[in-house]
Amino acid sequence: DFEAAFAARDGWDGEAYLGAVEAALGLEQRETALGYFDKARASGAAQGKSRSLYARMETGLRATRPGWKFWGV
Predict the structure, then answer these.
(1) How far is residue 39's CA from residue 50's CA, in Å, rounded to a whole number?
(2) How far apart, in whole angstroms, are the C-alpha atoms of residue 6 and residue 24?
(3) Where in the chain are the domains?
(4) Which residues contact 23 (CB under 8 A, 6 or more apart)?
(5) I want to staple 17 with a disulfide (CB 3.0 to 4.6 A). Which of 40, 42, 44, 56 is the partner?
(6) How far is 45 from 63, CA to CA, in rounded Å?
(7) How far is the C-alpha of 69 from the C-alpha of 16, rounded, in Å?
């Protein structure tokens, strides 16, 4: 199970959470991806070496956003 694999350890760095976001988007699990994206943001993934991956995941989340949602990811 995807969520069980990542729930086994809490406290990953921001880049690892972004990897989980990418995997969840690939499995079409948007809500799971949003949860990990929030954790990545809280871990500071928007700065430093993971900034480009963060931007790609943000774009991916926006692409899967429901039509009724006008702002955010």
Answers:
(1) 14
(2) 11
(3) 2-63
(4) 2
(5) 40
(6) 20
(7) 27
Rg, the chain, Cα only: 12
Query: According to the model, what pLDDT value does residue 57 have?
Result: 96
- What three-state secondary structure class fits 46? coil
* 63's tokens: 């692409």
Q: Across the chain, what does the average pLDDT equal?
A: 88
Between CA 49 and CA 7 the distance in angstroms is 24
pLDDT in tens, 29-50: 999 999 999 999 999 999 999 9
Provide the token pair at 27: 């499995």
